[in-house]
């Protein structure tokens, strides 16, 4: 049995990477096949607490490198601070001669790399090339990372979600839902900017928004725009509450400016929900425009509004898209497929 040491955000951190981690940690088949240990390198906390957590992670990791039975170091990595933080662990693992798998999640790594100077670019390549395998989320990301590492090291594994046994979607549902970080780069303010016009024309629908980040600024924006009666705003919600909301969702919206392969969209597809999303990152691999939802250019607020209105005006089309969405989720994004492909990567090194 191979011994795997996994590093990434703590299992209660809010975000898509944590969702993937929990899927792995809680999968009985994976844990029967491998001996998995986990070290959190980051938590939702203040700067001092984050620094302390990182130092503790480094100490625990070093102990495991010296004394623990570790065959493979498996690191969940993204861009910016995540990359620099995880680079230390990659270089240490390589120093101890461990096999390394890097799982790249960052939806903005191409910009992060493109804006870096030559010295940093050399560091990026050095770190990523320490890996025996680099897992990426989509074929598009494989094309990008092939600039940094040999193509034979890159493996595409789509994120996976647990699929409900049947499609519960109803065209009578009345939520237009956003789940994600409250951040301008996620397009949250673009979505809020179309609420007033859509609510005036379709008073039976309400926008439901839940997530983490700067919720106070979002709340202020909603008040300023006079749309409080049309928006339900909540902080991060747990899995049970999320399932309840998705059961009441007619359209899922994600007008983000960059993405990898967002878990929120895959969860929406698994509930048979048509998705309106910006055509960024790997979203075109999850949504064929006009089939499982509608895509528009990031930042095109009129395009976002038109896509939502198109679906609100056509319940039969939403039902057809729902069947397509649920079918694609079962065929491409089922958690069992994800675990099977991940297992194959660990088996081959």
- The helical percent reads 40-55%
Poorly predicted segments? none
The helix tally amounts to 15
Number of domains: 2
Distance from first to last alpha carbon: 13 Å
Topology:
Elements: E1 3-9, H1 16-25, H2 28-33, E2 35-42, H3 47-67, E3 72-77, H4 81-95, E4 99-104, H5 109-114, H6 118-128, E5 133-136, H7 139-145, E6 154-156, E7 175-179, H8 188-201, E8 206-210, H9 215-225, E9 231-234, H10 239-247, E10 249-254, H11 263-270, E11 275-278, H12 283-286, E12 293-296, H13 301-312, H14 315-332, H15 335-347
Helix pairs in contact: 3-4, 8-9, 8-13, 11-14
Structure description:
The two termini are 13 Å apart. The chain is built from 15 helices and twelve strands. The chain is 47% helix and 18% strand. Helix 12 links the parallel strand 11 and strand 12. A six-stranded parallel sheet has the order 2-1-3-4-5-6, with helices on both faces. The protein has helices at 16-25, 28-33, 47-67, 81-95, 109-114, 118-128, 139-145, 188-201, 215-225, 239-247, 263-270, 283-286, 301-312, 315-332, 335-347; strands at residues 3-9, 35-42, 72-77, 99-104, 133-136, 154-156, 175-179, 206-210, 231-234, 249-254, 275-278, 293-296. It has two domains: 3-160 and 334-347, Glycogen Phosphorylase B (Rossmann fold, 3-Layer(aba) Sandwich), CATH 3.40.50.2000; 175-332, 3-Layer(aba) Sandwich (Rossmann fold), CATH 3.40.50.2000. It is of the alpha/beta class and 349 residues long.
């Amino acid at each position: 049995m191979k011994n795997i040491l996994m590093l990434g955000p703590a299992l209660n951190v809010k975000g898509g990477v944590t969702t993937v981690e929990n899927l792995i940690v809680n999968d009985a088949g994976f844990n029967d096949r491998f001996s998995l240990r986990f070290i959190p390198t980051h938590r939702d906390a203040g700067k001092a607490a984050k620094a302390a957590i990182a130092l503790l992670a480094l100490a625990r990791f070093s102990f495991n490198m010296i004394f623990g039975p570790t065959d493979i170091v498996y690191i969940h990595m993204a861009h910016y601070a995540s990359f620099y933080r995880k680079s230390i662990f990659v270089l240490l693992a390589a120093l101890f001669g461990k096999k390394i798998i890097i799982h790249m999640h960052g939806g903005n790594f191409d910009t992060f790399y493109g804006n870096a100077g030559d010295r940093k670019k050399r560091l990026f390549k050095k770190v990523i090339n320490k890996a025996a395998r680099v897992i990426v989320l989509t074929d598009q990301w494989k094309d990008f990372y092939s600039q940094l590492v040999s193509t034979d090291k890159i493996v595409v594994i789509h994120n996976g979600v647990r699929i409900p046994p049947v499609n519960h979607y109803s065209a009578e549902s009345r939520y237009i839902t956003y789940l994600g970080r409250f951040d301008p780069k996620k397009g949250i303010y673009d979505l809020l900017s179309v609420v007033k016009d859509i609510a005036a024309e379709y008073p039976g629908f309400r926008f439901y928004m839940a997530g983490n980040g700067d919720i106070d600024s979002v709340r202020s924006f909603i008040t300023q725009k006079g749309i409080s009666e049309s928006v339900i705003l909540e902080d991060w919600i747990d899995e049970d509450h999320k399932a309840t909301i998705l059961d009441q969702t007619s359209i899922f919206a994600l007008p983000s400016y960059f993405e990898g392969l967002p878990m929120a969209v895959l969860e929406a597809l698994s509930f048979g929900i048509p998705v309106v999303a910006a055509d960024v990152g790997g979203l075109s691999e999850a949504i064929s425009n006009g089939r499982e939802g509608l895509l528009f250019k990031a930042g095109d607020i009129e395009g976002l509004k038109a896509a939502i209105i198109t679906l609100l005006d056509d319940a039969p089309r939403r039902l057809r898209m729902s069947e397509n969405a649920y079918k694609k989720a079962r065929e491409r994004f089922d958690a069992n497929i994800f675990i099977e492909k991940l297992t194959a990567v660990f088996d081959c090194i």
